[in-house]
Write a structure and sequence with these properties.
Elements: E1 5-8, H1 12-24, E2 28-34, H2 41-45, E3 48-53, H3 64-74, E4 78-80, H4 90-98, E5 102-103, H5 108-115, H6 117-123, H7 142-152, E6 156-164, E7 167-172, H8 175-193, E8 198-202, E9 208-216, E10 222-234, E11 237-243, H9 250-266, E12 271-279, E13 285-291, H10 298-305, H11 309-317, E14 334-341, E15 343-344, E16 350-351, E17 358-360, E18 367-371, E19 386-394, H12 397-410, E20 412-414, H13 420-428, H14 430-434, H15 441-445, H16 452-471, H17 478-490, H18 492-496
Parallel strand pairs: 1-2, 1-4, 2-3, 4-5
Antiparallel strand pairs: 6-7, 6-8, 9-10, 9-12, 10-11, 11-14, 12-13, 14-19, 15-16, 17-20, 18-19
Helix pairs in contact: 4-5, 5-6, 7-8, 12-13
The protein binds ligand MV4.
């Protein structure tokens, strides 16, 4: 069935990103928005927009019944959930399809299987997928756990089956700690996920986090679109992603790609999905879990393959086959993405919400900015404080990296602190440049002091400006002075050229 109108059940940059492809395809778009997002670009961009409630997500973006009603009222054929919110909610997906609306994503059954790590492991068992040595099922007997742990060797990791994104994980260094840690892990899992199932794995000490993008259609075609390297993260929050990974050989890439396709096959997957792996120091890879949504970092894959993943998602939801074959795909060039958060890296990454007094995007060759804000807007406190995703492309890794540094320098944001200086630090680190890093990169190399140089520079500029204003006797005009003080922050870009 041809989709003529899509409702995007999301906000911010991803809502805008999805609507742009819909528009490319001649499909009408509907935005639903909370009271906090009235003035957001995605609301204006949509052909129709409906306010569905107050700012808190639970009262707006998670209100599946309200969203279904909007679909009925406006003659919507399909819902795109984006990421977060309803995107991996099997019950919401059932309600949507039961109402006769196409859900642009996998079946609720696939979501449920992959939402449980133990169910996911069981589902892929008949395929030859490497997994970290550990227990096959849930474990709750400390004596049994000790036996297993001794077999696989300490340190071990206790993981909650229902956990994800690092939640519900505990490292256990020795046998003495096991019983207590296990009890904690179980009670945490019960209170956080309502499911106390935990299992044990050998702890991989210095892994890289590599994920494979897959697409599966309703005709039995499954392809992979290579990997994304996501090891640069801070407390399970990804900071910089890239494609391809600088450490995969063509052989490992092909082997991981085949495994990812099998994981998708194992759960009858349909749509765009991501299969997560750990890669150890010896380049052994292990299947971790599958994310059943379009991911934040999907643009780096789009850059190196030329595939519009949202277009493929929509085609697949209409029942069309994937528009290309595995053999047609080739990695062309290199891409980075940095996530620009309204957080203060000098102050333990505390969210720094406020107004975007200055907001000027970088542009030029090889630069893509996926954002959902514009100058003068407030960053709402109710949602994730991501301002934008800055994506660069180059013929090789070094060109893409240099472009990212140039783009970061061009980006002008004032009114809130951002993670841009932190990203620039990472991009210039020798271990980042050489590709010699793992998931501990940020913890190992980042301290707020590494940004000090920049802060000093700022203070220097402020002092210079103060002297300048004083000498030109601006102090006689208090109103002007206060507006100039605000501009102090902004003027750092001009002065950096000094
Ligand atoms: C691991 C691991 C080491 N050994 N499993 C964290 C998130 C979840 N998806 C899986 N995670 C890990 N599982 C074993 N057996 C280390 C991590 C891990 C990690 C993984 C990917 C990206 C960042 C990470 C940061 C800390 C720990």
């Amino acid at each position: 069935m041809k989709i003529k109108k899509i409702l995007v059940a999301n906000r911010g940059e991803i809502a805008l990103r999805i609507m742009r492809t819909a528009k490319d395809m001649g499909i009408k778009t509907v935005a639903v928005f909370s009271e906090a997002d009235r003035t957001a670009p995605f609301v204006r961009y949509a052909d129709e927009a409906v306010c569905i409630g107050p700012p808190p997500s639970a009262e707006s973006y998670l209100q599946v019944d309200k969203i279904i009603k909007v679909c009925k009222d406006l003659g919507v054929d399909a819902i795109h959930p984006g990421y977060g919110f309803l995107s991996e909610n099997a019950d919401a997906t059932r309600r949507i399809t039961d109402a006769g609306i196409i859900f642009i994503g996998p079946s609720p059954e696939a979501m449920e299987v992959m939402g449980s790590k133990l169910a996911a492991k069981a589902a892929v068992k008949k395929y030859n997928i490497p997994m970290v040595p550990g227990t096959e099922g849930a474990i709750d007997d400390p004596e049994e756990a000790k036996k297993v742990a001794k077999e696989i060797g300490f340190p071990i990791l206790i993981k909650a089956s229902a956990g994800g994104g690092g939640k519900g994980m505990r490292i256990v260094e020795s046998e003495e700690m096991l019983e207590e840690q296990m009890q904690r892990a179980i009670s945490e899992a019960v209170s956080a996920f309502g499911d106390g199932s935990v299992f044990i794995e050998r702890y991989v000490g210095s892994p890289r986090h590599i994920e494979i993008q897959v697409l599966a259609d309703t005709h039995g075609n499954i392809v992979h679109l290579f990997e994304r390297e996501c090891s640069i993260q801070r407390r399970h929050q990804k900071v910089i992603e890239e494609a391809p990974s600088s450490v995969l050989t063509p052989e490992i890439r092909e082997a991981m790609g085949k495994c990812a396709v099998d994981v998708a096959r194992a759960c009858n997957y349909v749509g765009a999905g991501t299969v997560e792996f750990l890669l150890d120091e010896n380049k052994n890879f292990y299947f971790l879990e599958m994310n059943t949504r379009l991911q934040v970092e999907h643009p780096v894959t789009e850059q190196i393959t030329g595939v519009d993943l949202v277009r493929e998602q929509i085609n697949i939801a209409e029942g069309s086959p994937i528009s290309f074959k595995q053999e047609d795909l080739k990695i062309l060039g290199h891409s980075f993405e940095v996530r620009v958060y309204a957080e203060d890296p000098a102050n333990n990454f505390l969210p720094d919400i406020g107004k975007l007094n200055t907001y000027n995007r970088p542009a030029g060759p090889g630069v893509r900015v996926d954002d959902g804000f514009e100058q003068g807007m407030e960053i709402p406190i109710y949602y994730d404080p991501m301002i934008s995703k800055l994506i660069t492309y180059g013929k090789d890794r070094e060109e893409a990296r240099q472009r990212m540094i140039r783009a970061i320098d061009e980006y002008q944001i004032s009114g809130v602190e951002t993670t841009l200086p932190f990203c620039k630090f990472a991009l210039q680190h020798p271990n980042f440049i050489s590709g010699d890093f793992d998931t501990h990169f940020v913890a190992k190399y980042f301290t707020p002091e590494v940004l000090k140089q920049k802060n000093n520079e700022k203070e220097e500029i402020a002092a210079l400006l103060a002297t300048f204003y004083h000498q030109t006797s601006m102090k006689s005009n208090p109103a002007q002075q206060s507006s100039l003080n605000k501009d102090c922050k902004q003027s750092k870009w001009k002065l950096k050229r000094k």
